[in-house]
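Thread: Modeling a multi-component assembly for a lab meeting

Hi all, long-time lurker, first post. My supervisor asked me to bring a structural picture of a complex we are working on to next week's group meeting, and I have zero experience with this. I have the sequence lines for every component (1189 residues in total). Could someone generate the structure of the whole assembly? Inputs are pasted exactly as I received them:
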Amino acid sequence: MKRLAKWRLVSLFALVSLILSACSGQPHLSTLQPAGEVAQKQYDLMVLSTVIMLAVMAVVAVIFVVVLVKFRRKDDKIPKQVEGNHALEIIWTVIPILLILIISVPTVVSIFKFADVDAMERKNEDGTVDATVVNVRASLYWWEFEYPNEGIVTSQELVVPTDEKVYFNLIASDVKHSFWIPAVGGKMDNNTENVNKFWLEFDSEHVDPNELFQGRCAELCGPSHALMDFKAKALPRAEYDQWVSDMKNVEEAEVATTDLAQQGQEIFNQSCIGCHAVTPSNGTPAEARLAPNLTNFGERSIIAGYLENNEENLKDWLKDPETFKPGNKMTDTYGKLTPEQLDALTAYLMGLKVQD
Amino acid sequence: MSTIAQKKGFGATLWDYLTTVDHKKIAHLYLIAGGFFFLVGGLEALFIRIQLLKPNNDFVSAGFFNEILTMHGTTMIFLAAMPLVFAFMNAIMPLQIGARDVAFPFLNALGFWLFLFGGIFLNLSWFMGGAPDAGWTSYASLSITSEGHGIDFYALGLQIAGLGTLIGGINFLVTIINMRAPGMTYMRMPMFTWTTFIVSALILFAFPPLTVGLFLMTFDRMFGANFFDAAMGGNTIIWEHFFWIFGHPEVYILILPAFGIFSEIFAIFSRKRLFGYSSMVFATVLIGFLGFMVWAHHMFTTGLGPIANSIFAVATMAIAVPTGIKIFNWLFTMWGGSIRFTTPMLWAIAFIPSFIMGGVTGVMLGSASQDYQYHDTYFVVAHFHYVIVGGVVFALFAGAHLYWPKMFGTMLNEFLGKITFVLFFVGFHMTFFIQHFLGLWGMPRRVFTYLPGQGFETSNVISSIGAFLMAAGVIVLLVNVVITSVKNEKVGNDPWEDGRTLEWALPSPPPYYNFKQLPLVRGLDAYWLEKMDGKKGMTPAEPIGDIHMPNNSFIPFTISLGLFIAAFGAMFHGDEGNTWGVPVLIFGLLFTLGSMFVRSIKDDHGYHIPKKELLDDKDLGGKA
Amino acid sequence: MHVEEKMTVEKWPASPEKQTLEAKNKFLGFWFFLGGETVLFASLFATYLALKDSVPRSDMYLAKDLFEIPLVFVMTMILLTSSLTSVYAMYHMKNFDFKKMQIWLGITVVLGLCFLGLEIYEFNHYVHEFGHTFTSSAFGSAFYTLVGFHGAHVAFGLLWITTLMIRNSKRGLNLYNAPKFYVASLYWHFIDVVWVFIFTVVYLMGMVG
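Re: Modeling a multi-component assembly
Sure thing. I ran the full set together rather than chain by chain. Output:
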């Protein structure tokens, strides 16, 4: 009998995982395809609580069906007026308490685990920090990723090493946003007045080199809230280190190589550079970094956070940003661009690469 | 009175309703106004679902979508669900405790007019430059930077409406404590009265934080204060706390009366006493109490730290226990009963599985470390619609069918009622079940669109179709109301035949003084006890005598109107070149203050219905 | 007993404020109202504590630079005394001594006016001497909102009591207006209690930094 019960439990778990995986959404996006320690723990908790809840619902369903079938009105008799039943009432008070306790323990343990960011501050003797730390600054409607220990800044596409904890400092520069990479673990708010800290870990075994993790803003922040997406690229440690050193090597804005691109650079230096930096240094104060850093723009997979990075999209976006991201801060900061100017700018921007 | 009213002209009837202090008429007003706003909010919901029907849709613009979603939430909670709940509380609770009216008839009217003027003010935003667009939660950093007057409409409109609710809450508390009929002890009060009682206490303690929050927002936006401006030393988290210290109890303010209505329905249509009455009362009190201890579970991702998150997580999950007690008590009320499947009973039966769905996802959301994934996604949207639609709206539909005869003297058509039920029930689950998965798959809430290729397409289509089914159900209900009102077939005091509580001992609708003689209550389900003893009605607790009644008054209307006017002044005074703002603000406030002054200095002793008239009027007396 | 009935000392009941059902309702309802007001002020206190000394620039004045205990102490004493005088007024109300009640209520109103005058002086002082205004910082907003809300309550209470005194000056006490006087004095006590908290939380705790 006991074994049978155990089997039932196992099969219930199997059923739940089956249901969840049958409708588990897309890899690199869905919370049901966890690709990191945080998301995995959260997924395990989901399964645990779903199983418990299904068990409760099964009990209710049985009573429910019996009641509806057996106690329909058949005659005009007055049923016995029952006041209650203490034994029953105690049972359905105590059992839920126990079930809640079963969920509470792993919940509380994981809350503390997810909030453990001591390693961020742990300094070596020479003052360096071993932990990978990223300052995430959210603005209407774009993301900046600053690596304080490396002294570099990038935007829209987060680059992180796999299989180790990556620590995040979250802040917003205008209104409240919320930083979320569903498949890797969620989520924490970017407040306007204080820095929030948490960590995520990206599993190498779940990384498809051809696809990036989808990140997004989860707190209503204005008209283009829905489009405030970003990507996260998880690289093995060696490749990550290479990326960092490539970024660090860019000390001055690269000079365009082709004629067209040089024209583009001229336009850029006249109209765009006031807000968009093309060097990765974090020397300028955060408040002065008014728009996404474009140092490695040509290597990113996306434009404006969500459009596929190709020349056509880039031109459309530059021509009329308002249709693509209503309420963005770039609209009307520069004059109308001629097709030639667009070609030139596109050529320049697409050539902004650090890893050649 | 009702027959007299029918003979009166339209103007006289209108004046009667504008000045009434009768709880039954105020209930009509709440029902009509709340019903209207429910349709408005429903229309907004349809716009949302049309926009999300396919990826990259451009049915509405991004900014307009935010206005719609904000107004949908705000309207449904403050202007539809609250007043509809208040409609039933007003119509039924005084009858259930054997009272002739509420404790403060004047304030009762004032509460209604404040709510109505606040609601109208809020909705005028559509025609005056744009509605609020920061979500019904109106989080401070976004709401103080929002351009135009949208958020001003929100802050001032809710301030006025909220004041009305607070007044209503105090009124019901005093009514239940002081006005119960002889023999109606606390532990003999019907479940709906109990929930009204607890809810009124929740209102009393939950609305002041909202009042303060709205004041701070008003001062920030219109008078240059800096509560939420981080650059000036402000802190937006203060708003989040105030909003949710109000907002979480608010959810219980809505759901507990729903529990009350369902408790009545299960007992009536199972022909059985409510199972575990005292544990039901205890569970209600406990839910109300715990409701104040859990607000921060809406802020798990705000960064309050692991200790706060753990405490609020465990407290939140604990609420599942009293709620579970209630569910099992309802099931065992039906167990061994003799169930009749009327329209109200269908809603009640459908409520159990629907609400459990919302309840279990509530536990999952309460477990904070999971919530980090669910927070601000469609999973949350699915959850709260399961509790608010599957709980509150189902109860409002059930209550409308159940109490229609008591409020209007005629029965809604049962056949049409069942069609409404089927359409709405199927549509509801279609719309919201799939949204759990949308959230888990990575779709945040409050998005005006989504990109193709993320696997969201089919689910959103299903969800939108469901919304239209719900709309169809509501239309059938409207048709039902019209047909019923035209036919107007009068029914007797106990049209469902199995009424258990005092209201069913009175004619439908009851005379304007409710009870000719106050009834003597001998136990729980007072009317049922008398019926089982073979009596036709209640035993009177007093001889027939003069009845003291309150006078009608137009002052509640003018007090509310003054605040309505003042709100326009406050809102526009800061506009460039505006010269009339401050004078209008002062005029409006003086108008309100003046109305209160008149109320204060003019003696209002009410009037007496002479004993002779009551003796002559055999028909109106009811059987009490 | 009819509410408008002309009363005499002999007929005057021991608790004239709770004789009719309407009066009992008013009495209980008002207590609930004060419960709600308590939550309101608690929220304002919480806001103030969260934003105390929260200023955008380091050269701006903080609580410890602003407040002067002597002035606030005088204000506190005035308001506490006015609470006491309203108790005397209610004492005479219960003894059906209308004239003495009116006198004591009059003194209460005068003390309330003194308090308000000092408060206006105090605010004016902060604005002109320290540049501490409603819009200068979050601290300023929170301070003026909390103390200003209390001040507005005082002003409303004065209007209320004065209205009652004038309205009933000719006809004296009866069971209809006795509860009105009673709840007005309850309100006055409540304002006084709130001030004690403001004195402690804002001023005394402000002095120690």
